[in-house]
Amino acid sequence: MTKFSDLGLDPKLLAAIEGAGYDTPSPIQAQAIPLVLSGRDVMGLAQTGTGKTAAFGLPLIHTLMQQPGKPMPKNVRALILAPTRELVGQIADNLKIYAKGTKLFVGTVVGGLSINKQAQMLTKGVDILVATPGRLIDLMDRGAVRLDQATFLVLDEADQMLDMGFIHALRQIAPKLGTPRQTMLFSATMPKLMEELSRSYLTNPAKVQVATPGKAADKITQGVHWAQSKGEKVELLIKYLSKEPDALSLVFGRTKHGSEKLKRQLEDAGFKAVSIHGNKSQGQRDRALQAFRDGAARVLVATDVAARGIDIPGVSHVYNFDLPEVPENYVHRIGRTARAGADGDAIAFVTGDEIGLLKQIQKVMKVDIPVIGGERPEEVEPEKKQRGGRGGPRGGGRGASGGGNGGQRQHKPKSASQGKPANGGQQKRNRNRRSGGGGKARAA
Ligand code: AMP
What we know:
Layout: H1 11-19, H2 27-37, E1 42-45, H3 52-66, E2 76-81, H4 85-98, E3 106-109, H5 115-122, E4 126-131, H6 133-141, E5 152-155, H7 158-163, H8 167-173, E6 182-187, H9 192-201, E7 206-209, E8 220-226, H10 230-243, E9 249-252, H11 256-268, E10 273-276, H12 282-294, E11 299-302, H13 304-307, E12 317-320, H14 327-334, E13 344-350, H15 355-365, E14 371-373, H16 425-432, H17 437-443
Parallel strand pairs: 1-6, 1-7, 2-4, 2-5, 3-4, 5-6, 8-13, 8-14, 9-11, 9-12, 10-11, 12-13
Helix pairs in contact: 2-3, 3-4, 6-8, 14-15
The structure holds adenosine monophosphate (AMP).
The site of adenosine monophosphate has 17 residues, from helix 3 and helix 17.
């Protein structure tokens, strides 16, 4: 097995890795680190939770340490773009841990926080800047930051950035970087557009991947529980949550309003629940996530956008309260459990108007998700149902290149009334929770 000490990293980095409590490189790290150190562009197919931040962060820090020079005022040496504020914070927290013991300065710029403070931070220059594309462009437009010193570009969660419409921002940002440039692109799924992105921004990239595209982690047990109505879904969710009193559960809703309502219904039913969605301020989201990470709340209700890329260790159950309208998001959602080799359950509540979406998801996943409970409702065209202006299923044509069903473990179909999630809560949660420095990395 590859050891961190085999990868050619600076001893200071090896010490930081040890301090973070990492024993052995994760598969994506073992593959990507030597490639990045050799100067190659890298295209990585990997979800959050696979250790991809260190996969690009460690060799990036190593290379910056080897290169003489400091950042020039209002300039940066390496740029990392990520789709959400939360993800930017998480990446920067991890990089700060890895860069401990070096003189490298890691800065962040994200929307929703004071732009003046960020401009101020940039005046002296930054070794590694982690940014959301929109705010970075605002700062570039103000003349607060230049990128011509930057010879590294990392595009993290690139598929999400595309989904969120950051392609235009990327077109503006990328040409402003210095040359020659080393570029790394990480994505959890590989839709066609990603290949195009890679052709535009990467040169002869080495490809690394830790899971087949569109395939859920091997250790996730998936199941569908039929529901006749929204109201029944709430009842079902409460039943499932009650059966696993110690589990840490992530519940996905489709809309901001619906997610907030569901959170209140869960609170009324006596659960410690928090929510994150677009109607929450940054402070509220941070507090909710902290409560969930600390275990003060054991249910987090989230929308896709709010939950994008966030590393929440120890999640043992993912509930698709509403199915995602974009099939690839199902892969993202269920990938939030079964991190780091732990097991996880992913249960979807599906009503008649979601059967079409379910079929699309199964097509993308190339797997039939077993039914674990409920009576199959009659299939209803979503358009025929009032959905507050929302259309029917989207994304059917976006097809991720598929993957087999490999060693995927699945719920054994049970009688319609049972639908009991697999194995016990506390044990699983303890197993899932990482020991040592992993926690430190997250809390930083
Ligand atoms: P990421 O996929 O980069 O978001 O990382 C997910 C989590 O795994 C983070 O909490 C990291 O601190 C942790 N991690 C990254 N690499 C390793 C490793 N080699 N061993 C143990 N934990 C790791």
